[in-house]
Amino acid sequence: MDNEADVFYRELPKVELHAHLNGSVSCHTIEKLISRKPHLNIEHGMTAIGKGQRRTLEECFQVFKVIHQLVDSEEDILMVATDVIREFAADGVKYLELRSTPREEKNTGLTKKRYVETVIKAIKQCKSEGVDIEVRFLVAIDRRNGTEVAMETVKLAEEFMLSTDGLVVGLDLSGDPTVGHGKDLLPALQRAKNCGLKLSLHLSEVPSQLEESDLLLNLPPDRIGHGTFLHPEVGGSQSLVDKVVMNNIPLELCLTSNVKGQTVPCYSKHHFKYWYQKGHPSIICTDDKGVFSTDLSQEYQLAASTFGLSREDVWKLSLQAIDCIFAPDTVKQQLKLKWAAIKPQVFK
Ligand SMILES: CNc1ncnc2c1ncn2[C@@H]1O[C@H](COP(=O)(O)O)[C@@H](O)[C@H]1O
Ligand SMILES: [Zn+2]
Description:
alpha/beta, globular, binds N6-methyladenosine-5'-monophosphate, binds zinc ion
């Protein structure tokens, strides 16, 4: 990690709603994976982007490929998922929605079904160990894989939603935003919505996707990942903004990810400012805490220092995120009670 956030931000109870499992693997866990697979000749510098470093989005996607080579068996996924959950908990995250793309690996016999089962096993294991965090899972569709795989993924997610007692709550659409077109994925996304899966879609992460964003917003999704180029000042449009506002669709905003991946030129120009000033639900998230060498406390601190937020503002920001989770109202109520119990300690 580049830095450590101040105590206030670490102790602040937080909600993490946008975290890709394999992008969230810490240095510590990468070391364990490298020692399991020395023959791959993978070094640390290949799996994380350090302080002050920038990469193109394309280069970021190369990094995921390297991590996927390191995480290719049930055993790896179990270790990675339990480590990631424990790390979020240690950073003061009380509710986490983890997302990941089910992968099949011929070499190790891993199937997509076993992949999801293993993530669920990790969530249950952490719960039984008493780790202080509620975790839910979003099954991810990689947009590069097209219509058929998207539909298969929805069916898989549907099965697990029904069999896991509410641990699988929704679907994510992610992957290289420059590849494929959202219109090919609409039938799968519509089906997901109809069967009760919540939708969090990466939208307008890169410029010039007005048509695709418009199509996807008509679903409408339950949350938006990034939405970097939605508003008119950056080449989006007022009608896209109006759709987001009218449907009150929360945005998952990831400052370090966007700056290090160079879709946003610097922190002060991040679109958090645009949406936050509007009073629109804006949730601070990490995206890939391992790859971008950050954690959620640092992201809150960055938002506060860049946009001049008071501690009270920061508190409201983290509290407001509870209303945007995909788990049911009973969980929201429990979390709000937890926040109320912690508040006096944080503001002492
Ligand atoms: C940086 N911005 C981003 N934009 C779009 N998709 C992203 C992403 N960051 C991560 N992913 C998606 O998450 C996968 C890695 O985690 P999982 O193997 O699924 O756990 C990547 O391969 C990509 O599909
Ligand atoms: Zn993402």
